[in-house]
Amino acid sequence: MALHVSLVSADAELWTGEASLVVAKTVEGELGFMAGHEPVLAILAAGQVRITQLDGTKVLATARDGFVSMEGDSLTIVAGNAALVA
């Protein structure tokens, strides 16, 4: 079962796709998300977002000033400032 992920910054959609695991830093600590996770709304802390795609490859981004929302099998990360890490 896949998790649909959308990572957006204030001015652009940075990454959208299917993932098996996403780890994001919130003000209460790091949270890991997989398909079937309970609903969550959390404040995003400055840090790294790690997305593991279905094929095992990883996408890394930095993000801060926003929120993380999990509903059903959809995870949305909205950040005031975010960028993909090369």
UniProtKB/TrEMBL annotation:
Keyword Membrane (UniProt): yes
UniProt domain ATP synthase F1 complex delta/epsilon subunit N-terminal: residue ranges: 3-82
InterPro entries assigned to the protein according to its UniProt record, in alphabetical order: ATP_synth_F1_dsu/esu, ATP_synth_F1_dsu/esu_N, ATPsynth_dsu/esu_N
A Pfam family that the UniProt record links to this protein: ATP-synt_DE_N
Compartment(s): Cell membrane
Keywords attached to this entry: ATP synthesis, CF(1), Ion transport, Membrane, Transport
Record's bilayer topology term: Peripheral membrane protein
SUPFAM superfamilies recorded: Epsilon subunit of F1F0-ATP synthase N-terminal domain (SSF51344)
Family listed: Belongs to the ATPase epsilon chain family.
Protein's name in the database: ATP synthase F1 complex delta/epsilon subunit N-terminal domain-containing protein
